[in-house]
């Protein structure tokens, strides 16, 4: 008899591949409902690995408003030395905006440098 609407989750599922996956560049990890950190998981039982690494380091569950920031900006680099706990998302937002603005300015500098180089090459040819 086949049960409709019920499916096995976690290791009991025939398509189980270890409980790790990727979502928007982040590594996500499946947690069993009996896991101490399960309260941090989403409705499907997954938690972002960087949050789990920080929670395990602190030996407590993270609060929903606490943000774990990747210092080097790589979403899948979840080494503890690359993670920083921020008390609120607004600090993370400011950091992200500043980094985006700096990247934009660096692009403009490269663009202007190329224009100057092209201009100098043209002047050298004409002289």
Describe the 3D structure:
With 127 residues, the chain is α+β, with helices and mostly antiparallel strands. It has one domain (10-126). The chain contains 2 helices and 5 strands, in the order βββαββα. It has a 3-stranded antiparallel sheet with strand order 1-2-3. A hairpin with a 2-residue loop joins β1 and β2. The chain is elongated, with a radius of gyration of 23 Å.
Task: Please render the helix and strand layout as text.
Blueprint lengths: L19 E4 L2 E5 L15 E3 H10 L8 E4 L12 E4 L2 H38 L1
Antiparallel strand pairs: 1-2, 2-3, 4-5
Provide tags for this entry:
127 residues, alpha+beta, 3-stranded antiparallel β-sheet, 5 strands, elongated
Low confidence ranges: none
Strand elements, count: 5
Oligomer: single chain
Spatial shape:
elongated
Major β-sheet annotation: 3 strands, antiparallel
Please write the string of helix (H) and strand (E) elements: EEEHEEH
Rg, rounded, reads 23 Å
Distance between the termini: 89 Å
Instruction: Count the DSSP helices.
Output: 2
Main sheet: strand order = 1-2-3
Share in β-strands: 15-25%
Produce a short descriptive summary:
With 127 residues, the chain is α+β, with helices and mostly antiparallel strands.
């Amino acid at each position: 008899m086949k049960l409709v609407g019920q499916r096995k989750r976690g290791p009991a599922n025939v398509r189980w591949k270890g409980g790790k996956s990727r979502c928007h560049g982040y590594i996500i990890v499946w947690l069993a409902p009996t896991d101490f950190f399960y309260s941090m998981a989403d409705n499907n039982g997954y938690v972002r690995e960087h949050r789990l690494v920080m929670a395990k380091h602190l030996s407590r569950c993270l609060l929903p408003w606490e943000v774990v920031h990747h210092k080097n900006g790589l979403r899948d680099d979840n080494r503890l030395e690359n993670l920083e706990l921020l008390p609120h998302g607004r600090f993370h937002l400011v950091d992200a905006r500043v980094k985006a603005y700096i990247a934009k300015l660096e692009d403009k500098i490269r663009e202007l440098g190329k224009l100057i180089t092209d201009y100098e090459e043209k002047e050298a040819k004409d002289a």
